[in-house]
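PROTEIN DESIGN WORKSHEET
SECTION A - STRUCTURE
LENGTH: 221
TOKENS:
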């Protein structure tokens, strides 16, 4: 039985004791490390700069991915004086397009965000280098609990600290790697974001932990 995370393997065993006799293999949703290292070595130029630390979200844009629900929070924090730039890269689910683009028209977000409908994957390491924090705001549900999204490993490759929801598998990875912070509501998101924005040393420490953990995962494959 192949699963995406150790947590989900154990969850299946807890729910279905008869599976004790089966062999479980965990195969994380890892990125292609050799390709990403080549992309990084190529030093691909991108047309993106931001005045303030950049929060990046890479992947499909949809309510179920949590990023749309995050936008009103980010607008509010910008109004309160937080200094950051939001970079979103990815296609938008058809059902969520109106809501997403209406949020991006909010005054503060309009002035402090960049949306790209997609970029070639070879350019992602360059965008990660120009970013400060990786966002993983997935809705907490059984599907998102079962495995870790590929974007978290991409953020780890870029040595970015991760700000994420408490989906069980990604929470386990982040806590075991000490590579990010977990939030559950607006107040905890605000507190953690403030911590990361105002403490470059914390960002570097968590980001390096993530990158080291990623290489360890490949070594142990």
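SECTION B - SEQUENCE
RESIDUE ASSIGNMENT:
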């Amino acid at each position: 039985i192949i699963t995406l995370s150790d947590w989900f393997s154990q969850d299946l065993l807890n729910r279905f004791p008869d599976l004790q006799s089966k062999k479980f293999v965990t195969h994380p949703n890892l990125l292609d490390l050799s390709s990403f290292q080549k992309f990084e070595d190529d030093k691909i130029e991108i047309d993106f700069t931001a005045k303030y630390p950049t929060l990046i979200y890479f992947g499909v844009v949809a309510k179920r991915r949590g990023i749309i629900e995050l936008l009103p929070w980010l607008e509010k924090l910008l109004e309160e004086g937080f200094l950051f730039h939001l970079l979103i890269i990815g296609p938008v689910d058809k059902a969520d397009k109106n809501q997403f683009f209406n949020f991006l028209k909010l005054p503060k977000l309009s002035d402090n965000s960049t949306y790209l409908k997609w970029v070639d994957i070879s350019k992602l390491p360059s965008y990660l280098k120009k970013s400060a924090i990786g966002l993983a705001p997935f809705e907490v549900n059984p599907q998102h609990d079962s495995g870790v999204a590929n974007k978290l490993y991409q953020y780890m490759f870029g040595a970015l600290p991760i700000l994420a929801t408490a989906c069980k598998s990604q929470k386990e990875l982040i806590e075991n790697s000490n590579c990010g912070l977990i939030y559950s509501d607006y107040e905890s998101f605000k507190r953690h974001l403030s911590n990361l924005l105002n403490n470059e040393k914390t960002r570097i420490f968590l980001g390096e932990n993530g990158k080291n953990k990623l290489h360890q995962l490949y070594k142990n494959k």
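SECTION C - NOTES
The longest strand covers residues 54-58.
The longest helix spans residues 200-219.
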